[in-house]
Specification:
alpha/beta; Immunoglobulin-like; 8-stranded parallel sheet; 5-stranded antiparallel sheet; globular
Length: about 600
């Protein structure tokens, strides 16, 4: 997967509604049918396996912590030195049946494995290079053939990860700084590389049976983020590549990492703060520890409870979870991973109907510590911590016919709370699952919910903090996005003047507020006009300023804000030079007189 330095460009969350990608002859209904299995599945296994499992080291040349599958780059190794790991790659303990069985028992419905990672080493028998598991190792075996067969036997969709980035191929650019002398870029032909990539994709899609997903990665290295453009098309030819894929396997799904939105978005190592807009499919990919490939020095394992709750959170927001394991060079999945897969599988055997085939919660915010999913006339409450006196649920207009836990079938009391409109009391069960107790509410029909979610409230000092994470992002499909950063999130790719962000706030009393905005803006993009303020009231007109690479907080002026529920927004005024800004947050502070 990504290095920590480039993680920002990977975690791109589309902030607008869009149907799944459609082929030229595909209707919306056909698109929905094609993606049906994926939407029902909810849970898949990611496998990162390659030469990096031989050194199994998650540090760089200075001892700083990195991710193991980037070993070649972390150590700034020359290609000839890294190639030697191929002779040491002997996975004599590889058992495709065991891997597929582990996924099946964990409750997973599909399996995505690295056919080629950034190091360019192919984990399949490619006729287009000798740098593959059959020709370059003593093992002389194609594990993808075994896995494809075992996935079919176990009822799992078999899928391929494929890295567009390739540190081995002579025609791939750019070169790494430390290998400029030994591998000069002169003579490299990126167009020839894309032809090579197309040839390998053709092999993957014709030699291994039906493939559920092509999971691209690495196109972001060329820094061509954003909507399709002549430059993207010239360098990567994504429309041509994806069209070829669909011609070979029309039922396949393609992710969003070949510079096209395609079927679904792929936030990495994070769960979005809120659900994607209806119609946009998405999948969080997540490690059990810190690194994707196997590393002997990565012991920071997430607990089984944490992973199960993350699965609930993702289902609550309408997404899928692709959970990773990094097998050893011997071909074994680490025992820590096996233990967690078993625990998740045991929970899903009891509670799976609250995950599989569900849709996002009708509630943006719940009045208890837990999550919620929907399926037909069922509302499933996944409760992490029970209030001692039972819980309340507001806004449900549908009649509750029956309430019971899934773990023991214990019937629960449900009754309206006098004096509170559409608010129910649900009694606490005697038998609690400490990870997540699921309560199934059988309703008189599909859930009719008036979402009582509170708007943003001011802090104790009266300040409103309007963060990128809390914003409702409205705009162009596949462009304006919420981008996750280890320290602060931001709205990015703001290239269309009609795109805007919105917050709803509860203002306790009318007053004047000083407005500050924290953002980054390049010198090339600076000078664009935008407004910030009330959608139905006073607004400030201003222009962006160059901030450099680090975010700056800019004072914009003051607004008069009436009491009550108010909508604040930031909107561009005219044609943009490039990107309006990378917005971190807006602060509204009571003005001092």
């Amino acid at each position: 997967m990504s290095s920590q330095a480039t993680l920002l460009s990977l975690c791109l969350l589309v902030g607008v509604a869009t149907l799944p990608a459609q082929t030229a002859r595909e209707t919306a209904a056909q698109s929905e049918q094609r993606t049906h299995w994926w939407r029902e599945a909810k849970f898949g296994l990611f496998i990162h396996w390659g030469l990096y499992a031989v050194p199994a080291d998650a540090t760089d040349k200075n001892g700083n912590y990195k991710i193991a599958e980037w070993y070649q780059a972390n150590k700034e190794m020359q290609l000839t030195d890294y190639e030697k790991f191929a002779r040491r790659f002997r996975p004599t303990r590889f058992d495709a049946r065991r891997w597929a069985s582990l996924a099946k028992e964990a409750g997973m419905k599909y399996l995505v494995i690295t056919s080629k990672h950034h190091d360019g080493f192919c984990m399949f028998d490619s006729k287009l290079t000798d740098y593959d598991v059959v020709d370059a190792t003593h093992w002389k075996h194609d594990p993808m053939k075994d896995l494809a067969a075992e996935c079919q036997k176990h009822g799992l969709k078999f899928c391929f990860y494929y890295s567009i980035m390739d540190w081995h191929h002579p025609d791939y650019l750019p070169r790494r700084p430390w290998e400029q002398a030994t591998r000069p870029p002169a003579g490299a032909n990126p167009d020839r590389y894309i032809d090579y990539m197309k040839g390998q994709l053709r092999e993957l899609l014709t030699n291994y049976g039906p493939i559920g997903v092509i999971w691209f990665d690495g196109a972001w290295e060329l820094d061509l983020r954003g909507p399709p453009s002549p430059e993207v098309e010239r360098r990567l030819r994504p429309m041509e590549v994806n069209s070829m894929i669909r011609s070979l396997q029309p039922a396949i799904l393609i992710n969003d990492r070949n510079n096209l939105p395609e079927d679904y978005a792929t936030p990495e190592q994070s769960v979005p703060a809120s659900a994607f807009p209806p119609g946009r499919l998405w999948e969080t990919c997540l490690t059990m520890n810190d690194t994707w490939g196997y590393a002997t020095n990565d012991h920071n394992w997430k607990s089984s409870a944490d992973l199960i709750r993350k699965l609930c959170d993702i289902a609550h927001k309408g997404g899928n979870l692709l959970l990773n394991v990094g097998p050893t060079a011997d071909g074994e999945i680490p025992p820590e991973s096996v233990e967690r897969l078993a625990a998740i599988g045991a929970w899903l055997k009891v509670n799976g109907e609250a995950i599989y085939g569900t849709t996002a919660s009708p509630y943006r915010k719940l009045p208890f510590n837990g999550r919620c999913t929907v399926k037909g006339d069922r509302l499933y409450l996944q409760i992490f911590e029970w209030p001692e006196m039972g819980l309340t649920l507001s806004g449900l207009q549908s009649k509750v016919k029956r309430a019971a836990t899934l773990n023991h079938g214990e019937r629960l009391q449900v009754k309206p709370i006098p004096g509170e409109l559409a608010t129910l009391f649900i009694s606490k069960p005697e038998k609690i699952d400490p990870i997540a107790t699921v309560v199934e509410l059988r309703l008189s029909g599909p859930p009719d919910v008036t979402d009582p979610s509170p708007a943003i409230k001011s802090k104790a000092n009266g300040t409103f903090l309007l963060t990128a994470t809390a914003a409702e992002i409205n705009g162009t499909t596949g462009v304006i996005r919420l981008q996750y950063d280890p320290t602060s999130n931001q709205v990015t790719n703001w290239t269309k003047p009609k795109d805007f962000v919105l917050w709803i706030c509860d203002v306790p009393q009318a007053g004047r507020y000083a407005v500050e905005m924290t953002y980054t803006c390049s010198s090339h993009d600076a000078g664009d006009e935008f407004t910030v303020g009330l959608d139905r009231g006073e607004r400030l007109n201003t222009t962006t300023v160059a901030t450099g690479p680090e975010p700056a907080t800019v004072k914009l002026g003051e607004l008069s804000v009436p009491a009550g529920r108010q909508m604040f927004s930031v909107r561009a005024k005219a044609t943009l030079k490039g990107s309006l800004m990378n917005l971190r947050e807006v602060q509204l502070q009571p003005a001092r007189r």
